[in-house]
Each structure stands twice: as C-alpha cells, then as structure tokens.
Amino acid sequence: MNHPATQDVLAVAQRLHQQHLPHALVSVLRVLAPASARPGDKAVVTAEGIVHGWIGGGCAQPAVLRTVRQALADGRARVIRIAPAEDGQVRELDDVLEFGMACHSGGTLELFVDPILPRARLLVVGDSPLAVALAGLAPRVGLPVTVLAHGTDAARFPDAEQVLASDDAAQAAHAVAPGSFVVVATQGRRDVQGLRAALAVGARQVFFVASERKAQVLKAALVEAGQDAAAVAAIVAPAGQAIGAQTPEEIALSVLAAVVAARRGAAPVSGAVVQPAAAAAQPAAETTPPAAASAPARPLPLPDLPALPAGASCCGGKG
Fold it and tell me: Is residue 84 assigned to a domain?
C-alpha cells in the first residue's frame, strides 16, 4: 500500500482551510495487526468523504465518516477505536468512542479526529445604534465583524473589519463565508431586505432583533415571497438572552451572549426583553425578568453504518 506523505496531506488541509471549507484531519494513533494503516498515517476528510490520505480500508471508513460529520457539527475532537465485534455496537469507553465492526481480520485501529472549521465571523445587518454596539463588542469575544447596511457611514463602525454600504443579498453572500453568524439589527428600517440578505449567506444561525409578534409577521411574509420555509423558521427571534436589557449596549450584550452560546454548541435561547424607557426608574429587582435557562447541548444522532461485504477487513488488512 502506497501511503501518502504527511506533507501532502497537510498541504491539502491547508488549501481547504484557505478556502474556508470545514474538514477534519484524521490521524492513526495505534494499530493492532492485521491492518493496512500505520501509526502516523493521516487523511483529510470532509462531510462527503476522504479527500486525501490513508487511514485504513473500507471497514474503517464508514465509522470515520460518521464521526467526522458529528465533529464538524459540534467542533469537538474525538478519539475513536474500530475493533472487531459481532454485534456492531457503538460504545463510549472513557474518552474513546468504540465502534464494533464485523471485521474478520481481527485488526484494530485507534484514530484521532480533529475538526478544522472556518473562523467564526459575525455579520451585522443594519445601521441602528444596536448594530453599532454589536460591531464594537463582538471582536472582544473573538468574532470578527462585517457590517452590511444601507448607505451607512463606515466611520460609525471603527471595530468592524469590513463595512458594506449595501444590503444586497448577493453581496452579503460573497462577503461572509457559510458557517458565520448573522444578527439582523435593522430595528424597523428595511427589515425585510435585511432578513433576505441574512438568509442568502447560508449562515450557521440567524438572529433577528424584534418582538415575537413582529418576527412572526415578517417570517410569514418571507415564506409567502418564496423564501425557504425551514430556513425562515430557524431564524431566532426574539434574539438574545433575557437579562432585562434596555440600552443598545445592553441589548448587544444580550444578543452576543446568545451568539456565543450557539457558537459553543448550546441551544439558542430566545427572549431578550427590551423594557420601555419608563421602566428604567423602577428597581432592578422589579424590571429584570428571571434569566432563561440554557438547554444543554445534545450530540447528533448517529446513523446506521452501511452493511459490510463478507470477509471485509476492519482496517484494510487481509482477513
């Protein structure tokens, strides 16, 4: 078996990274013969399959692929073991996920699956005071910002990496890579156009700062106009954590907390509350609603592995 050089595998991974394409670097940690892979062998794997490299034969690859898909979804690295078993069960042993495979060769592989995701970015749609506050706060938690607004002054967004004076959907899709987060902070000015631009990006999550009633009306209008119903339904609105926010800066903090939760794999929590100005004079204990509880992250369900041909080897060795 001709094993690709590590330098070649890393070069392919570097190219995918430069293209902002999610992928995983899978490395062989340990081998129990018979197996065609060796410790140190590597492969670049996307959600569609192995792009380049070698990590074992046909019996190993389905388990690797399903693990890579889950790692790309939640961003967490994993160690997996592929070992012979009659029942084909998947078990979690300490920090190792073990796949039992009906491999007649008896070979065993341990692999490290390291997801490499594009750098998360935040697209802020709108030129409202809230948009200004978000663009200033997000870089401080590691989220580079692109602002998309209609006829705005770039000087209002000194912390943004990029300011586009347009809410054109095509320009938004070109400016921000898929997998980014989007906050629509138009606040009554060109809301529908802003939401259309947000949907065009193919974002990991879209947040819309609006009341629940307004969001429902605009979502219905988007679906009626031909937008994908599932994508529209996935828009988080109202956006943000319920902290009793009132000022643009406080609301920005609330919304950014929800973005960070989504970035780290927690379920998004709607319910940011914007209190009327008159409520500001009341004591904080009366104006601040209880904090919403964040739902714990749930692992993605693992689909069934495809059936293996009789005599197939777990790790590519000869049975």
Answer: yes
